[in-house]
């Protein structure tokens, strides 16, 4: 039952079937399946297949956009059912996709996970001007700046944000974490970021450790 629902959620993302994705998200709720599991084991698995098809040249931008819409529609249904933990102390995170980069599916999953863990997330969206990360962190007295990049060409933007923090004398006031498919722990270290996480669920634990330091 559970596996069948995951499979159908994944299939609807691959097929770009928004209506089907909504229907299977509702089925998942009815069947008492954990909403986060439905996102990660169903929808995100489908997105992995889409990524492979795109890379093989079998899918083009229009197909990927349909898949992204199907995924977003199902996430909207599942989101209210994600169990929210109370954070021990309130932690504010400024999150965004760096300038020049409009890939926000992963960032949105990270947001869902962080909010579910009880963190306060200031979502700056995608294609975020680099200085805005610093401005918003100051404005909200944020504990963490979390940056996402999905392209090798936009990754250097994360380094620039850290350089801006140093320039403005704010580097020791806020922790930084980066993520996104082309990034790595080594890259994070090389640009002076405090942390890196592979995926949305890992991000929660990594940020908890980061702010406890
Ligand atoms: C979907 C997609 C699109 C969609 C984006 C829709 C949207 N709203 O996001 C559309 C069709 C619009 C698109 C457009 C383009 N794309 Co595109 N796209 C992809 C694709 C297939 C999947 C990305 C995705 O959503 N993955 C699923 C999510 C769930 O995974 P994720 O993003 O990696 O996120 C997870 C982790 O990385 C992590 N994470 C992510 N962010 C963060 C942040 C923090 C702080 C942390 C801790 C963790 C974390 O957690 C997430 C969840 O677990 C990738 C292929 C790939 N292998 O990545 C190409 C890819 C990223 N795209 C690529 C390209 C080139 C483009 C275009 C330039 C194409 C074009 N010619 O127009 C444009 C770029 C426009 C722009 N300026 O940004 C290239 C980038 C190559 C490079 N230079 O590095 C890729 C790698 C494909 C390829 N092999 O060529 N794309």
UniProtKB/TrEMBL annotation:
It holds the Pfam family B12-binding. Keywords: Cobalt, Metal-binding, Methanogenesis. One of its GO terms (molecular function) is cobalamin binding. One of its GO terms (cellular component) is cytosol. The keyword Lipid biosynthesis does not apply. Residues 90-213 form the B12-binding domain. One of its GO terms (biological process) is tetrahydrofolate metabolic process. Residues 1-90 form the B12-binding N-terminal domain. It comes from the Archaea. Belongs to the methylamine corrinoid protein family. This is Cobalamin-binding protein. It comes from Thermoproteota archaeon.
